[in-house]
Amino acid sequence: MRIAILSILLISILSCAEKTTPIDSVFVQQQQVSITQPRVTATSTIIDSAVTITAALALEDVGIYYTTDGTAPTENNTKYTTPLTVEKEGSYSFKAFHADWKPSETTTLKLYKKGIIPRKLFWNTKPNSKYPGIDSITLMNHTKGSVNFRDTQWVGYDTTAIATMYFKYKPRIKNITIGYLIDTKSWIFPPEAVEVYINKTHRIRYNVSNIPKGELKKLEDFQIPINRNVETMTIRVYNSKLPEWHPGKGMNAWLFMDEWIFNE
After folding, report:
1. Nearest to 212 by CA among 178, 258, 180
2. 180-223: per-residue pLDDT in tens?
3. At a CB cut-off of 8 Å and minimum separation 6, what does 79 contact?
4. What is the pTM of this model?
5. CATH number of 39-113
6. Where are the domains of the chain?
């Protein structure tokens, strides 16, 4: 009798275990895993008249949502259905959602408006011979670099970068956007400071406070207010020293820039 009771209990336990396996277990696992970020591309990241943004993710029943102000999208935001024609600069963020998976990480694409082009550019200092860019006007060719520092859109300096620009008809420049790379593992850091000399009479100093901690690789930029009519402009970009936590602490960091945009 005792053996019969134990046998019945064992069969019941095994029966319950069978009812809670494969499908429920797989569903729980899916709910804990994020889907891949959507792949977002643009015909150009610098807008002349308009550019086209395309987002894609090869996964059935996925929905991609986006925002135009850089905030993380939710399913309450606009759903991406067809490529976007964009005329305004800004940060465009995309995120993928699926009923059976966690949402993806956010993919953000930053677009810039084409600026004023100087009539003449003179480099007072030269970039390192290993990273000269494409030519002397790489920083004004309306093309942004990638996160790969070997991309020829990057101009690399291991000392202060100095250039003088001459403008036709003294345009009024609102601000300057300077794009740069952070790749701490490759000793590439933000500049320490920038000095701008306008028409040989006015000086602006901008201190950069975006010094990273730990391993990081990303594209960044900052804007320097000008709000003046400009005939000549000299820009000095000072590279920083490697911080205390870095293996090369105290040495000169590399300075990599991809674009200077003179905004109206």
Report:
1. 180
2. 999 999 999 999 999 999 999 999 999 997 788 889 999 999 99
3. 63, 64, 65
4. 0.83
5. 2.60.40
6. 39-113, 120-263
